[in-house]
Amino acid sequence: MAFVAPPGYQPVYNPRIPYLGPIYGGLRDGVSVYIQGSVPKDITRFLINLLCGESDSSDIALHFNPRFDGRDKVVFNSRQGGSWGSEEKIRSMPFSKGKAFELVIMITSKGFQTKVDGKEFFMFPHRIPVEQIRAIQVSGDVSVQSINIIGVSPQYQPLLFKAVPYSCMIPGGMYPKRTIIIRGMVPYGSNRMGFNLVVSRSRDIAFHMNPRVKERVVVRNNREGGKWGKEDRELSLINVGFCERHCLCVAQIFTSRCHYYLFFL
Fold first, then answer.
1. Structure pTM?
2. Which among 151, 183, 170 is positioned nearest to 9, based on CA atoms?
């Protein structure tokens, strides 16, 4: 996949809840808010707000509020000028007590399309122009591992369900703050996998990432002129979120403007 983050945006990892932080560069059509987290077994409710300012009193373009109250539901709403709009109550609960989740809020021309664990949940129509959004707020009974703002560059399209081994050109090459996201499943009994950023002409490998499941380590390296460099083994699989069931790799690469192949072993 070829994704870019809004200018100046950096992912937020393990924020303290309640959390309120800016979205540098704002939001626009085609951008997604990606949140990894988990809810406790004794959850009652939590909320995620997309704010039009950086204070609790700011207008809220999207209020996302799962409630475990005996009649489990997710409430969507907005707030403008201090007044709440009409609630949209979805009497279906995509979150499970004591379980981890992946929430994606995709900004479309029609509204906020929410997905939980890869399944479409609800589209909340725009009531406030999305260009006014400046911050994100998370509060309540929830733990968050990461918050990421991801935008799809207009000239690129996501590459889905590709067989491995796989390789493709990266139009425009890599440059600072370009983000590559690879999402897939790791079969039980897997031994290792590899992700390479390859210089197209010389076939040198600028970045080699090799998760080794049985060793519980991630090997990083480079190869130039046919010779491998010194291996870096400081990362464990636990630190980067790999397991034998589910794999999510987020690699933010800082390189010069060169043409690369993205190659999956």
1. 0.61
2. 151
